[in-house]
Amino acid sequence: MRFEAEITNWDHPWFGIDFTHSLTVRYILYNENNIQVYNKEIYSIETATTEETLIGVYRANRANEYAAKENIRLLLLDLENVK
Question: String of b and e for 57-81 (b: at least 16 CB within 10 Å)?
Fold first, then answer.
């Protein structure tokens, strides 16, 4: 099996109170015969707030992490339906 992931869009503000980041990733999965069995773009969006940290760079990092974790969570949910 072979698995590919490519970030196709990553939107993140440079300034703000709350940081909302969106992430789109194309995931491609091939079976053992190198036949593509899954090819999908997954979009996620998450926010880090000033309640979590007052330091902007930390909010930006958290928003990135949250969007990435949500994207992976959505991928795993979708893969449950792949045969």
Answer: eebbebbbebbbebbbebbeeeeee
Instruction: State whether residue 68 is helix, strand or coil.
Output: helix
Q: Which domain holds residue 31?
A: 2-79
pTM summary value = 0.87
The type of residue at 15 is F
Number of domains in the chain: 1
pLDDT in tens, 37-83: 999 999 999 999 988 888 778 888 999 999 999 999 999 999 998 76
